[in-house]
Design goal:
The complex is a heterodimer of chains A (478) and B (178). Chain A has 478 residues and is an all-alpha fold. Chain A is 71% helix and 0% strand. The model of chain B has no long low-confidence stretch (mean pLDDT 87). Classes of the chains: A mainly alpha (478), B alpha+beta (178).
Chain lengths: 478, 178
């Protein structure tokens, strides 16, 4: 009861301190370090964490059961069949990989652009990227039919003397996703090292001390280390930036290189990248709003961050809306009977509800974000972010299913209905995503501590330049 | 030989500005075997205690070239030499179609080179280092700034150097055991 009361009091204080700056007033290096590291180092696990983790872990069990059944019986347990061979597996794959893109965008692109508001959201956005890529990478493998032979996609010396088909976007995808996963992991880990050293120095539990110590690799903040560290970090950001564009472009090419009506358009790669950023930022907002509330992090993840992310959602959402318009235009301008029929069928055919719901979610609802009042209204923003996540899932459903189910030969038309196991696998990966996220926020600092210190020092220097009393720039008492 | 049994002297400062001034003064006095320790990357220190040369960017460039050229070679070798397969009359060496994998591989190997190169040049992982023997050094990852003048420096003298560090504003000077 006392913790409940304390928490509600803390959140009230937080509400009173809502700010449009990138960090709340009065923070010092010490206060930042203590606030963020205490969340990890506290012995008490909050009750909401246990409940939340238990629910997500139960869903992981649902995933494991669904996958076990899939291995035992084959992909016949899913709704996929001729003519719709791609179904939920590919819809969810594209959805997850798209969500991941915001993490890299925040951590790499905003770093290169020296955006201060990146600092308190990059760490958990990168974690979100990793977990989303993990969920995404499951699907193509599960969809293989003989998933245990997935390594055939890799070039390795084999007794068949065969090689992968390098001209296929599906093989490009293998390289793009595995590169993306590995680079995201390295970027995340390198960013964590100085914070792991902080936790090593602050942990009182001997086991935690040793574990943080091992992963911190003996980091001691030496100036020459920092120099090389920053070079490496910036180079990684510069490498990750074109990478993130290439990954979803290649996912777009998986579709665009075919001749299927509705897929065979040149707009797919850029339109997919915009959609990925759109859905990814929505997911970051979905995670950030509850996180800052339960941990009282209103000083670090401020309205400024949420406002800026809402703007990115609006901007990329408008690009996605333009993409929808161009798809319709290409359907007409191609002069191809099957393309035009597909365009009409999307809007008026059996899957029309999904198409219109997609337009409402991704085009109509986000127009609310033009208003600054609504962008900084947390309830509205949270609901919009969920609506965008749903809308972007529907978009992939529309792209995959409506294109495949009625293509060139009417005799080969058919319907696709997801089965129970389609849904259970999908919900299971959502569980996996959140289970990993719960573990992450419990054992690792969800906000980059050393970059927050850097932010405080930069802001103090700036304040000194313009002649304002620095806010807590000097080291606090210990 | 008392000098040999210590690693150096560790001076504590309360702010980055104090540390920069002290490091500059130490550099002017001729100290070279020294290192500053800070809770975040501090600009202006690298002039005195930083590393010269641009080895890391060159390592990353090398990684990128190896990754890109290696992937192009692998794709060309496998589809033109090892197992030529006629796909719709396209040339065996289909350079445009080889680009995406070459690109991904460039990024991957360059990124691995950046991370491993940074570890290697920084000498990490390094589980033991003498400065960890000073109890207050754990504040280097919180809000304190340290300057360590090492005993291996020719100008090092236990009494003299300690006096010098105090004169440049050190809040506390500790002896670092090796």
């Amino acid at each position: 009861m006392t913790t409940e009361a304390a928490r509600s009091r803390e959140s009230l204080v937080g509400d009173g301190r809502e700010t449009l700056e990138v960090i709340g007033p009065g923070h010092t290096y010490a206060s930042i370090t203590d606030k963020i590291s205490t969340i990890v180092l506290t012995q008490r696990t909050p009750r909401w964490w246990v409940v939340g983790f238990a629910i997500s872990f139960a869903l992981v069990m649902v995933l494991l059961y669904s996958v076990l059944l899939l291995f035992a019986r084959g992909i016949g347990i899913w709704g996929v069949n001729v003519p719709v061979g791609w179904g939920f597996a590919i819809i969810n794959f594209v959805w997850w990989i798209g969500i991941g893109h915001a993490g890299t965008l925040i951590s790499a692109v905003l770093l290169l652009l020296r955006q201060q508001w990146r600092t308190s959201i990059n760490r958990f956005a990168e974690a979100m990227t990793l977990f989303a890529v993990a969920c995404a990478a499951l699907y193509p493998i599960l969809h293989l039919g003989r998933p245990w032979l997935f390594y055939w996609l890799m070039p390795y010396p084999n007794t068949f003397n065969l090689w992968p088909q390098w001209r296929s976007p599906l093989v490009w995808d293998v390289f793009a996703i595995s590169t993306y996963g590995l680079v995201s992991l390295m970027f995340w880990y390198v960013g964590l090292i100085p914070d792991l050293a902080t936790l090593r120095d602050r942990a009182r539990n001997p086991i935690a001390r040793v574990l943080f110590g091992i992963f911190a690799m003996g980091w001691r903040g030496a100036a020459s280390h920092w120099q090389r560290y920053q070079t490496a970090y910036f180079l990684l950001a510069a490498l990750a930036t074109p990478l993130v564009i290439s990954v979803h472009s290649i996912v777009g090419m998986d579709f665009a290189f075919s001749i299927v009506p509705g897929w065979h358009t040149t707009i797919f790669p850029p339109y997919f990248v915009a959609g990925a950023v759109f859905s990814g930022f929505a997911m970051v907002v979905t995670i950030a709003i509850p996180l800052r509330a339960v941990f009282g992090l209103e000083d670090f993840i401020t309205l400024r961050h949420l406002n800026n992310m809402a703007r990115v959602i609006l901007a990329t959402g408008l690009i996605v809306g333009y993409g929808y318009l161009m798809e319709i235009f290409f359907g007409w301008y191609s002069g191809h009977e099957a393309e035009w029929y597909m365009t009409i069928n999307r809007a008026l055919g059996p899957y029309a509800p999904a198409f219109w719901a997609m337009l409402i979610c991704n085009v109509l609802v986000i127009q609310l974000l033009w208003s600054r009042r609504l962008r900084t209204n947390l309830v509205v923003l949270f609901i919009i972010s969920i609506v965008v996540n749903i809308g972007m899932w529907l978009e992939r459903f529309v792209i995959v299913v409506t294109s495949l189910h009625r293509d060139f030969v009417p005799a080969a038309w058919g319907m696709y209905y997801p089965t129970f196991w389609d849904w259970s696998t999908y919900i299971g990966t959502i569980g996996l995503f959140f289970a990993l996220l719960f573990l992450f926020i419990r054992v690792l600092p969800m906000i980059s501590i050393f970059e927050m210190r850097e932010l405080v020092s930069e802001r103090a220097e700036h304040a000194a330049d313009v002649g304002v009393t620095p806010v807590g720039a000097e080291a606090g008492d210990d | 030989m008392a000098e040999l049994r210590i690693y150096g002297l560790l001076a504590e400062f309360a702010s980055a500005a104090e540390l920069i001034t002290a490091t500059q003064r130490a550099h002017e006095r001729g100290f070279r075997q020294m290192e500053a320790y800070t809770p975040y990357p501090v600009e202006g220190l690298t002039e005195y205690v930083g590393v010269r040369g641009r080895r890391l960017p060159l390592i990353v460039l090398g990684g990128g070239i190896v990754g890109g050229a290696g992937a192009l070679f692998m794709q060309w070798y496998s589809s033109a030499i090892s197992y030529p397969l006629n796909v719709g009359g396209r040339p065996y060496a289909s350079w445009p179609a080889f680009m995406p994998i070459a690109f991904e591989s460039t990024i991957l190997v360059a990124a691995v080179a950046a991370v491993l190169g940074m570890f290697w040049l920084n000498g990490l992982p390094q589980p033991y280092h003498p400065v960890f023997n000073v109890p207050r050094f754990e504040l280097a990852s919180r809000d304190r700034f340290f300057l360590c003048i090492e005993a291996s420096d020719p100008h090092f003298d236990l009494v003299e150097t300690e006096r010098f560090l105090e004169s440049v504003g050190a809040h506390e000077v500790s002896v670092v055991k090796p």
